[in-house]
Design goal:
The complex is a heterotrimer of chains A (86), B (512) and C (279). Chain A is α+β, with helices and mostly antiparallel strands and 86 residues long. Chain A has helices at 36-54, 70-85; strands at 7-10, 17-22, 27-33, 59-65. Helix content of chain A is 41%, strand content 28%. The longest helix of chain A has 19 residues, at 36-54. In chain B, α3 links the parallel β1 and β2. In chain B, α9 (283-298) packs parallel to α10. Classes of the chains: A alpha+beta (86), B alpha/beta (512), C alpha/beta (279). The interface between A and C is medium-sized, with 17 and 14 residues.
């Protein structure tokens, strides 16, 4: 799967994250998270696994995280990718 | 050296504590003398009202390397420190130690003065905003000394903290140095944090934007403690007093915690005539006061005193007869200021009277219940309100450790997790209040009682309140949030944490 | 079944979903309908799908959309086997039959709770109750009902009185639970208690809630009092005694206990949330 258009999912509300996907010639992840200092490794792992499960091959995935729990990060990435490949 | 809470105090930090390392909340009685202070002869025709800050600094004898002090009653609305430092810099004075009672985001400008060499060291009981962040990243060469509010007064009175020049922002002053904080456009109510500095500093300079005719009718700080008076256009911004932490919570989780806490209070053995009470300034603490107010009226409990950090809910309780008296060391909002000014039962007390443990008995010793916040709490009930999840300084004990130690029952209120950070952890990042002084933790997921307090456990077992162990609460938090990776810090020490008795409790390392 | 107090949680808000972890309502209704903007229906569904596993073991309901474009996909969430109640807004008998059939196909263990929010729905209440064995409760939606009727929603509630009492009555007739419309003024605790007592007084078995702060108050009103519970337990204990089994009626503490009294005692125990072997 490849991202064909720029699209977003989620919000910048506390406990949520805003995911923006763009078309790109490779798979790129940009994470800006308030939890990065203590959950950085875990989040990168989670994001990569989620994109693998979705089968995303190319696309820039930008995540602006305001303290979201795992389920929310997975959900917002899924929604953004699904919208972005439609 | 390892202290009684298993915290390692590195050799580099040992020099900052004149009383050794922490050995227990009630173990060390400490030095029992007050220092001899300077006085000054002022002859009948001599004037104390000066023309400018420049003149005041000149006459104070301030030299490089000395220690100057400020109180934080104007909180994030302070404009005095900036004016003073500007004047000091013009005179080419440097390497100063700033002993502020607290620093806020409006003091971020200190970074420039540190880099230019005007300021070399800092001591503060609480730090937030830009300056706290920079210090956490290694801005200073030497560690900040962070004390409790009571502990700082202890240090000043015993001479551990020697203040050369105290700069006292005063909402109202007369030409001879009588001061109060209830009159004028910059009124902030109680003058609690300025007393010890006014009395014990070598030179005290009052800075006011409201010069009133001599003699001031209401006097908090007496003319015999003040060397000089200077008038400026504005000492600070009154809106800055009501900072983000002092608005009552509307969030349902916060209110649930507040209600549960009030139920714990209601069901305790202390909830009877003569009851005394203190809350912190956080949103949940304020809501707790509101619920407690309701229960006191319902059960017709007549309290003796409310203590604080005074806010509107406490003022309402006084008005409705829940307390005979409010003892006030700091006003957190405009209602408190107005009440202090107009109600004789709302009395101002010095910070030393409030919580200095070396002062022949402070008010916290007689406090029944304290309701306080927490950023982190560990399985031993040690509390951290100083550092955040990223290891940077976001606060400090303030009166936290004092109220916890003095009160008969100390209740800590907190969300079980904030964002994805658990509040209950294995070991707190920084200890500012030892677990042996913390009795109950109330979260939205349940109430944990310190096993040391079997009396409270038995009391609460008779109710249908949701009791859990602190380990159970930690598990719930971890299941929801995951477990944070360990913090990466450097060997450089950003701050040492001094307990209220002067011993060293913990150190805060700089972050990477 | 939703129990005596059910709390609506917007499925679009992670903050509110997180806050609901610690809420002690009898059930939670994750709302995919009115709480979610039309452009976010897909995103909210995905969010809920990922959040549901965290609520496994709790009593969970999902308010699906009424709109044909969305509700069929919403129903797919029940395949996860975590939510066991579907709240059907703007309930109509025909749609309930369809929903029930789809749930049968899925082999899903799911109750249907019909939300009555229009004059049309009110007119076919009996058909709704008969539309499927899965229908276990009727819910009153006062805001949308008054909108449909073209009248102002007032605090006193005269405009919804007919609908309110009819729903409680029909629910009773079909032995379903009935939950009253939410009380919208969150700050007014006394108003909530009054409203809840009124609902109980006209026969509702519980009440819907829109804010966690309302839950304890509602539960207090609808949960039987301690002495009621004790008496009910006494009745059921006595009914189980060998000397009383098989009798049409027996005496307990000077009172005559017959089948209707025993059934009422069972209902009391059920409302109190106490597990007991059914006679």
């Amino acid at each position: 799967m490849n991202i064909t258009k720029r699209t977003i999912a989620g919000t910048l509300e506390s406990c949520d994250c805003l995911v923006t996907v763009y078309p790109d010639d490779k798979r790129v992840i940009i994470l800006n998270s308030v939890s990065a200092v203590r959950f950085g490794k875990h989040l990168n792992h989670l994001i990569n696994n989620t994109l693998d499960d979705l089968g995303l091959v190319t696309g820039k995935v930008e995540i602006e995280d305001k303290g979201a729990l795992d389920y929310c990060i997975v959900a917002r990435i899924t929604a953004a990718v699904e919208r972005g490949v439609r | 050296m390892i202290n009684a809470l298993n915290r390692n105090i590195p050799d580099a930090a040992l020099g900052y504590g004149k009383h050794g390392v922490y050995n227990g909340a009630f173990e060390y009685r400490g030095c029992e003398k007050r220092v001899i202070v300077n006085s000054r002869t002022v002859l009948p025709k001599e004037k104390k009202l000066l023309n400018s800050l420049d003149e005041a600094i000149q006459l104070s004898g301030l030299k490089s390397g000395m220690t100057i002090s400020f109180h934080h009653h104007l909180r994030n609305g302070d404009e005095t420190m900036k004016k003073v430092l500007r004047a000091i810099e013009k005179k080419g004075i440097g390497d100063l130690t700033i002993a502020a009672t607290a620093l806020f985001d409006c003091h971020t400008f200190l970074e420039d003065y540190i880099r230019s060499g005007v300021v070399k060291n800092i001591q503060a009981n609480y730090m937030s905003g830009g300056i706290a962040q920079r210090i956490s990243c290694g801005l200073l060469d030497s560690p900040v000394i962070m004390r409790t509010h009571g502990g700082r007064d202890r240090a000043v009175e015993s001479g551990d903290l020697h203040v050369d020049v105290a700069f006292i922002a005063a909402p109202a002053a007369d030409e001879y140095g009588n001061l109060n904080a209830v009159d004028g456009p910059s009124a902030f109510g109680s003058f609690g944090y300025a007393y010890s500095d006014a009395r014990y500093a070598d030179c005290s300079i009052a800075i006011t934007d409201n010069l009133m005719p001599y003699p001031l009718t209401y006097v908090s700080i007496d003319q015999t403690l003040i060397d000089y008076v200077v008038v400026v256009d504005k000492i600070g911004n009154q809106e800055g007093i009501v900072s983000g932490t002092t608005k009552m919570t509307r969030d349902p989780i916060g209110r649930k915690i507040a209600k549960l806490t009030a139920e714990v209070i209601k069901n305790s053995e202390y909830f009877k005539d003569g009851f005394s009470f203190q809350t912190g300034a956080g949103g949940v603490s304020l809501a707790t006061a509101e619920y407690t107010h309701r229960y006191m009226l319902d059960k017709e409990v007549k309290g003796s005193f409310g203590l604080g950090g005074i806010t509107k809910p406490m003022v309402d309780m006084l008005r409705d007869g829940c307390f005979d008296v409010l003892l006030d060391t700091q006003c957190f909002d405009l209602d408190a200021i107005e009440s202090l000014k107009t109600n004789r039962r709302h009395r101002e007390i010095s910070c030393s009277t409030y919580s200095n443990m070396h002062t022949k008995g402070s008010v916290v010793n007689l406090l029944d219940i304290a309701v306080l916040g927490a950023t982190e709490i560990d399985l031993d009930f040690n509390v951290n309100v100083t550092t955040g999840s990223d290891g940077t300084i976001i606060g400090g004990s303030g009166g936290h450790a004092d109220a916890a130690a003095g009160s008969k029952m100390c209740i800590v209120v907190a969300n079980l997790f904030r964002g994805r950070f658990p509040t209950v952890v294995n070991e707190v990042t920084t200890i500012n209040t030892p677990g042996e002084t913390v009795d109950v933790l109330v979260t939205e997921c349940g109430i944990a009682v310190n096993p040391r307090r079997d009396d409270i456990i038995q009391c609460l077992r008779k109710t249908d309140l949701p009791l859990k162990t602190i380990a159970e609460l930690k598990d719930i938090a971890n299941k929801t949030c995951g477990i944070p990776e360990p913090l990466k810090t450097t060997d450089k020490i950003a701050a040492v944490v001094e307990y209220r008795d002067g011993t060293l409790l913990d150190v805060i390392n700089c972050v990477e | 079944m939703l129990g005596i107090c059910s709390l609506f949680i917007p499925a679009s808000s992670p903050r509110m979903i997180n806050a609901s972890f610690s809420v002690e309502a009898d059930s939670l209704i994750f709302d995919l309908e009115d709480a979610v903007h039309i452009s976010e229906k897909d995103s909210a569904r995905i969010l809920l799908r990922n959040a549901l596993p965290l609520f496994n073991g709790r009593n969970i309901a999902i308010r699906i959309n009424a709109n044909d474009d969305y509700w069929m996909e919403d129903l797919e969430l029940f395949r996860l086997g975590i939510a066991h109640n579907v709240v059907v807004p703007k309930a109509r008998a025909e749609q309930i039959k369809q929903i029930s059939a789809l749930l049968d196909d899925m082999n899903a263990d799911v109750d249907i709770e019909a939300l009555i929010e229009s004059a049309d729905s009110l007119e076919e209440l009996s058909e709704i109750c008969r539309a499927s064995k899965r229908v276990r409760g009727l819910l009153m939606g006062g805001e949308d009902y008054s909108l449909d009727l073209g009248v102002e929603r007032t605090r006193k509630g005269d405009e919804i009185l007919f609908a309110r009492t009819k729903i409680a009555n029909v629910a009773r007739a079909y032995d379903l639970e009935s939950l009253d419309t939410p009380f919208s003024d969150v700050q007014d605790e006394d108003g909530l208690m009054q409203d809840a007592k009124f609902a109980k007084g006209i026969g509702y078995t519980g009440k819907l809630s829109i804010n966690p702060l309302q839950v304890k108050g509602i539960q207090k009103v609808f949960r039987p009092e301690d002495k009621e519970i004790k008496w009910a337990q006494k009745i059921l204990d006595a009914a189980g005694m060998p000397e009383n089994v098989g009798l049409g009626a027996f005496s307990l503490d000077g009172k005559m206990i017959d089948l209707p009294v025993i059934k009422r005692a069972e209902k009391t125990i059920q409302r109190a949330g106490i597990e007991r072997n059914v006679l």
